[in-house]
Design goal:
This protein is an alpha+beta fold and 339 residues long. The protein contains nine helices and 13 strands. It folds into two domains: 189 residues, Fructose-1,6-Bisphosphatase, Chain A, domain 1, CATH 3.30.540.10; 115 residues, D-Maltodextrin-Binding Protein, domain 2. The structure holds 2,6-di-O-phosphono-beta-D-fructofuranose.
Amino acid sequence: MDHEADAHRTDLMTITRHVLNEQTKHPESRGDLTIFLNHIVLGCKFVCSSVSKAGLAKLLGLSGETNVQGEEQKKLDVLSNEVFVKALISSGRTCILVSEEDEEAIFVDQSKRGRYIVVFDPLDGSSNIDCGVSIGTIFGIYLVKDKDNPMIDDVLQPGRNLLAAGYCMYGCSCTLVLSTGSGVNGFTLDPSLGEFILTHPNIKVPKRGKIYSVNEGNAMNWDEPTTKFVEKCNFPADGSPPRSLRYIGSVVADVHRTLLYGGIFLYPADKKSPNGKLRLPNVIPDGAGWRSSFHWKTKGIMTCLPQSFSIEKTRALDLVPGKIHERSPVFLGSYDDVE
Ligand code: FDP
């Protein structure tokens, strides 16, 4: 019998236990972040459960359909947003919420206010729901300067100020990747326990990868360096084998694959979209040793920053968004590939 393997099977590191362990490294901590993250985890479990029923939409009346009782159901992205907003406010730990779904930031009533600012996209890639392709939630957490006087400028912070960031991918399995600044860890939802279990400790992006990931349908609008780079991926001049192309078109899934397998993901600026398509915060978690050269401006603060934070801490994280829904071209992945 393999006692070591057995010990792992019976000693389950849940996400709550992991975050509590992290908390003990900061004796001054009052447990606010742990509580707040628990509310994010609840939102992710809700979205996961809803997404897994999306294929039954016509039968059950999810995703904007009419259900068997003839009631019109909310679209999943709208519903997910409502669930996240309510779960986050009820934590009593947040003062400003910036959601990709809402044009304006939400300022929390003084009676329920806490110290955190959360930027999030409750359900990114929603155009993929109907065909069952992986989609995800993205989030980033900052600290407000003055809890009694929160201002929109508090949200426009560089990614390096993030306290925590991550994403949850609703795919073959439901995986939550979290960075609280010291490493990136992946947790998989065990549906029978209803718990996220640590399955990918201390993720590091391979230094170099074999994959490039980009929407080549935009090639006619690219600038010359982007065109040359992709040409090099297909026809390497140094005798190395050409790279494989993988593009899901759902940023959480493309970033997750890049994090695990290495390579490069890019959504560059082009003639049609001079700021790229993705929003700043949507792409930043940290500590996995990856390199991103976002000139971050994704759809807003939502997409680029939290994912870069889960991935690396350098240049993209120095960008200060000018407005909450700012977009940015993005290049991220293995260090050598992005260099
Ligand atoms: P979607 O439009 O389905 O919401 O953030 C938006 C996003 O998806 C990303 O998830 C994805 O990476 C990107 O758009 C795909 O854009 P293209 O269709 O232009 O490739």
